[in-house]
Amino acid sequence: GNSVTQMEGPVTLSEEAFLTINCTYTATGYPSLFWYVQYPGEGLQLLLKATKADDKGSNKGFEATYRKETTSFHLEKGSVQVSDSAVYFCALSVRAGNNRKLIWGLGTSLAVNP
Amino acid sequence: DTGVSQDPRHKITKRGQNVTFRCDPISEHNRLYWYRQTLGQGPEFLTYFQNEAQLEKSRLLSDRFSAERPKGSFSTLEIQRTEQGDSAMYLCASSRMGEGAEAFFGQGTRLTVV
């Protein structure tokens, strides 16, 4: 079946630290991969995406590379800020017949301290 | 376009009452999704529309839940005879057709069943 596994949180970092949030997936076919972010009290927003192997998605200093050989899409940022404190969700989109839906990880909470 | 909007933002209801939520997707988006999210969890897929056709329903969606999307525009999600276990954030998202199409989320409707 299709599934997404994220590292468990919470992750607590100091400002300017390096961030990695691991995400691995299982999927039939060729999924598209996404990272969504949910800031406190807000809805889900797309952070970045990659639609094929070796693609790198990037936004707001965050990056993730679609690694088919390791079935991974790890999220990284070189220097986190307090404003990055949020819950991060890894997701994949896979076609099932005529349908395409998102399969979600459980989310990883990030707290960045000044 | 102001994005995906959901109404109401919050709903408190007594157990056994019926509730209805509305979602207005981004106007040119064919696909519309309903998810449920509880604290500390990722979104759980409930149902999916392509235009006016409801193409998939999760097994999570008991017969107390029904969703419609008349004319392929706005959608409603009704919960009959609410139970305390229905308390959650109900999220609506919409997207275009196509590979890797981004899903845009509304702010959600938080339901509390007392």
Structure, described:
The complex is a heterodimer of chains A (114) and B (114). Chain A is built from no helices and twelve strands. Chain A is mostly beta strands. In chain A, strands 2, 5, 6, 10, 11 and 12 form a six-stranded mixed beta sheet that branches. Chain A is globular. In chain B, 32% of the residues are buried. Chain B has strands at residues 5-7, 10-13, 19-24, 31-37, 44-50, 53-57, 65-68, 75-79, 88-95, 104-105, 109-113. Chain B is an all-beta fold and 114 residues long. The model of chain B has no long low-confidence stretch (mean pLDDT 91). Chain B is 0% helix and 49% strand. In chain B, strands 2, 4, 5, 6, 9, 10 and 11 form a seven-stranded mixed beta sheet that branches. The interface between A and B is medium-sized, with 23 and 24 residues.
Short synopsis of the structure:
Chain A contains no helices and twelve strands. Chain A is mostly beta strands and 114 residues long. Chain B has strands at 5-7, 10-13, 19-24, 31-37, 44-50, 53-57, 65-68, 75-79, 88-95, 104-105, 109-113.
Descriptive keywords:
heterodimer; A: about 110 residues; mainly beta; 6-stranded mixed beta sheet; 4-stranded antiparallel beta sheet; about 55% strand; globular; B: about 110 residues; 7-stranded mixed beta sheet
Mean pLDDT, all residues of chain A: 91
Mean pLDDT value of chain B? 91
Counted by DSSP, the helix tally of chain A is 0
Whole-number radius of gyration of chain A? Answer: 14 Å
| Major beta-sheet overview of chain A | 6 strands, mixed
Low-confidence segments of chain B, given as residue ranges, are none
Provide the helix percentage of chain B: under 10%
Query: Compute the gyration radius of chain B: what is it?
Result: 13 Å
Q: Percent helix among the residues of chain A?
A: under 10%
Given the C-alpha coordinates, what overall shape of chain A results? globular
Low-confidence stretches of chain A: none
Number of strands of chain A: 12
N-C termini distance of chain A: 41 Å
Straight-line distance between termini of chain B: 36 Å
- DSSP strand count of chain B: 11
